[in-house]
Structures are given as C-alpha cells and as structure tokens.
Amino acid sequence: MSSDKTYSFFQSVERSFDKAATFTKFEKGILEQIKACNSVYQMRFPIKRDDGSIEVIEAYRVQHSQHKTPCKGGIRFSDEVNQDEVMALASLMTYKCAIVNVPFGGGKGGIKINPRNYSVYELEKITRRYTAELVKKNFIGPGIDVPAPDYGTGAREMSWIVDTYQSLKPGEIDSAGCVTGKPVTQGGVRGRTEATGLGVFFGIREVCNMPAVMEKLGLQIGVKDKTVVVQGLGNVGYHSAKFFRENGSKVIALAEFEGAIMNPDGLNEEQVFQHRKATGSILNFPGATNLEKNTDALELECDILIPAALENVINGENAPRVKAKIIGEAANGPCTPEADEVFVQKGILCVPDMYLNAGGVTVSYFEWLKNLSHVRYGRMEKRFTENLNSHILSQMESLTGKQVGAGERAFIMHGPEEVDLVHSGLEETMITATREIMDIWNSNPNIPDMRTAAYVNAINKVGTSYGELGIFP
Predict the structure, then answer these.
(1) Where do the H-state alpha helices sit in 319-449?
(2) Which stretches of the chain score pLDDT less than 70?
(3) What is the rounded CA–CA span in Å between residue 61 and residue 78?
(4) Which of 91, 82, 103, 76 is nearest to 368 (CA)?
(5) In the sheet where 349-351 sits, what is the strand order?
(6) Are strands 227-231 and 304-307 parallel, antiparallel or unpaired?
(7) Which residues pair with 110 in a beta bridge?
C-alpha cells in the first residue's frame, strides 16, 4: 500500500485546498478563515433500548462556514462516524454549494450508530432526541442550518426531524424548511430521489460534449456508445447507470461489496437490482461474467468509470492500474490525493466529487425554496403553458393543413410539472458549473487537474463573499 492512509479525511481536503489556494489572489489569513470549521457541536445523550437497557449515543453537527446562511448538509447514521469525517464533509459542502451557485454555507451531521442494529422505534427516539439537542443549541432552522439525508438516513428520518422541530417551534411559518429530503407529503420535492445520479450524468455529459477535452482523451464527442463501469448499486450508482444506459451508453460492469459482474454487451441496472434482491448478490447474473474481486471492476478497460460507493477506493496503490479515460466521482472522496497525481501523469480526466455529486444539494435547495414560497413548482404555469401550446399547435395545423402525430402532440402540449422543472434546474446547474470549472482550468495552464480548478472556483467565490460582507476590512 501507498502512504495514502497517513492523511485523515479532513487533512486530505485541506491538502487539496492548499494546492488550489496557490492559484488564488487571497492572502493567507483569508484562506485560513475559509478553510476553518466555524462551529463543531459534539453531543452525547441517552436513549432507552427496547430491552430496557440505557445506551449513550455519540453525535455531531458541524457548521463549516456561515459566509452564506443557512448551513446545509446531510446527517449520516454510521458506526464509522467521527469528528474528523464530519468536519471534512462539512467543508466539502461549503465548496460544493459555492461551485454550483447554491447560496448555502457547508454543514454536516453524524450519529455514531449502525442503523441495522436498532429497531424503527429506537431509530425514531434517537433521531427525535438529536433534533431536540440541535434546537436547544440553535443548530437547526430554515435560516440557520438545514440538514438532509446521507448514508443510513432517508425521507423517514427527515419526517421525524421536521415533526420534532415543529413541535418545539410552534407557529413558525417556514418550519418545513428546517430540513430537506422529506417525503413529498411533508413538503418534499419531486425528483429528489434520482437527483444525485442525474447530476452525475449531466456533469459527465457536459464534459463529453466539449470537443477539445474529448480530442485530448482520444474519444468521440457525446455519451452515446461510451463504455461505463459503475461501482456501487445504491441510490446514486443505480441512477447514474440508468441515465447513462438510457442515453445510449453501454454499462459493461457493475460492482457491489460482494463482488462485480461484467458483460461487454451491456447490463440493465434494474434487472441486476432485481436479481440482487432475489438472490442477495449481484453475482451469477444471467449472461454476465463474475469478477474475482469487487475492486477488479475499477481496473477494467472502459471510457467512463463511476465510483459511487465509498471513500478512498482508488489510491496510490491501484491508481496506476486504472484504464478508464474519464473518472466521475459520484461518491464522496473515492480518489485519494496520491491517485490524483497518478491520473495527471496518465492523462486520465478525474471529474471531482465536490461538484459532480452536487445534484442532491441542488435539489435540496429547490425543496427549501418550495418550503419558503409555500407553493408547488408548476402550479402557477402548468395549465397556462398547456393552453398556450395547444393554441400555437392548432394554428400551425390550420396554416399547414397537416396534423401532428399523437406522440409529438402530447410532447409539445405538455406543461411542466414539478419533476420537469426540478430536472431542468438541475441540468442548468450542472452545465453552468462544469463550464465555469473548465474556464478556470483553461485560463491557467499551471493548474494540474479538474479538482484543483474546482477548488480554485470555490475559494474565489467564498473569499469574494467574505470580502463583500466586510468581514475582512
């Protein structure tokens, strides 16, 4: 193994930050303030287990930056949770929000439990008590700090949080905006489930549509007929695979912790998912070849590799064996700083996690806006658009004397629903962010990789915001 492990996760983030900071105009003191975590709340609280025993739970909430408020970031339930990890993820949230032009500061939360070891009732007690502790210290609120789901949490936990918050803050009109990722019935937004995977697709597609980048990599323009390998068949990996397949790419391999499978003719992620549900494993999928180790998938010959599972899966030891032309970091921190250096030498383009997996926070922002405006997206304009399109269509048909086919008619007349507007907003966000990062990279030939260019973009935005606030006179 390489020396990757000498860095904690937070130190790895700081190391990438320092590398990018040399390409910015800010003085050392401002850079130190941007880098620092503003507030770290570490808590312990007891809960009574179903068997009557008392257990003390360890939990965290970190607010990395308040250059924009509220702070924003998920809450993870994992027995791997520690302060260093939560601080690293909170700082990445600050940079991620800046890059995709979402007006939030970065935050992150974590509860040190394995949710599989607790009953639903116990998880509810833990989540509600955690929320009460956050309210007590003013660490949650639609204008203060807005959590969201992460590993081990989902819409169910978010509904417990919003209910607890509302019971402790009666009459607060914007209280539904205290958390995002809620069920649609509780003020959630349609399109949230697939948001991160769809954002990954939009980001990579935009890179693949850049002629100069594709020429350098020796690839054809566009995602059509590109070979794709996806590691991880959770929510993000599943949807990434789905959108690439639906847009003409060939998903030749899928990996999960029990192993990996490949089929050069392409795999259907839904069929693999159902096979895994039925058998408990993706292995032995009909028509596919089993790979000896799940990490073997990372080293397959392909155009695009999507690590969508865990941190540090590509490091100084295995990076030299990676054969993909483009790596799209759908997970948080799947490639170490040592791996980045190898990619630069090999001419592999690594599209960094800190903006590529920002689909979740982008759609969370749309949900938060929906909660503050108290109106569903599309409610005001859907019928107006349909009526207008219908009128234009009938005018064209009467002028030309030709009838439009049923399929085309339905498409042209369709007024936008909430999910259409959410997907459209996400597409705009990812395209704009990709172009901004590429412009910075192209404008300075000394910037070594796309990750550094993304950090430069984030530092410039956060630093400028601090300056305009008058925090640094």
Answers:
(1) 337-346, 353-356, 359-373, 382-400, 406-413, 418-443
(2) 1-6, 468-473
(3) 14
(4) 103
(5) 289-291, 259-262, 250-256, 227-231, 304-307, 326-328, 349-351
(6) parallel
(7) 60, 76
Domain ranges for the chain: 38-186, 195-356, 366-469
Tokens 């759609």 belong to 363
Count other Cβ atoms within 10 Å, centred on residue 7. Answer: 16
Signed CA dihedral, 150, 151, 156, 159: sign only = negative
137 is catalytic: no
Would you state the structure tokens that stand for residue 191, as one six-digit string? 């399109």
CATH architecture of residue range(s) 195-356: 3-Layer(aba) Sandwich (3.40)
* Amino acid of residue 233: L
User: Which residues lie below 8 Å from residue 75, measured CB to CB, with a gap of 6+?
Assistant: 61, 108, 109, 110, 111, 130, 147, 148, 149, 150, 153, 157
- Sequence-separated (6 or more) residues with CB below 8 Å from residue 443: none
Across the strands, what pairs with 349?
Answer: 326
Q: Could you tell me the pTM of the whole model?
A: 0.90
Q: What is the pLDDT of residues 247-272, one digit of tens each?
A: 999 999 999 888 999 999 999 999 99
Widest Cα–Cα separation across the chain: 79
**What is each CA distance from 323 to 50, 302, 342, 349, in whole angstroms?**
50, 7, 12, 11
38-186: CATH topology:
Rossmann fold (3.40.50)
Distance CA 467, CA 464 (A): 5
- Asked whether the domain spanning 195-356 has the same topology as the one spanning 38-186, the reply is yes
Distances (CA, A) of 303 to 162, 218, 229, 230: 43, 10, 8, 11
Where do runs of H (alpha helix) occur along 247-297?
A: 269-279
Q: Among residues 275, 246, 244, 243, which one has the least CA distance to residue 258?
A: 275
Per residue in 283-342, pLDDT (tens digit) is: 999 989 998 888 888 888 999 999 998 778 888 889 999 899 999 999 988 988 889 999
Report how far residue 441's alpha carbon sits from residue 207's, in angstroms, rounded to the nearest whole number.
Answer: 13
Torsion of CA 177, 182, 184, 185, to 10 degrees: -80
Place of tokens 């807005």: 146
Q: H-helix or E-strand containing 245?
A: helix 235-246
φ, ψ dihedrals at 464, nearest 5°: -65, -40
Nearest to residue 104, comparing CAs of 94, 114, 117? 94
Q: Residues near 110 by Cβ (< 8 Å), separated by ≥ 6?
A: 59, 60, 75, 76, 77, 78, 81, 82, 85, 86, 150
Q: Helix (H, G, I), strand (E, B), or coil: what is residue 473?
A: coil
Q: What is the DSSP string of 287-343?
A: T-EEESSGGGGGGS--SEEEE-S-TTSB-TTTGGG---SEEE--SSS-B-HHHHHHH
DSSP conformational letter for 76 = E
Among candidate residues 19, 35, 72, 108, the one labeled active-site is 108
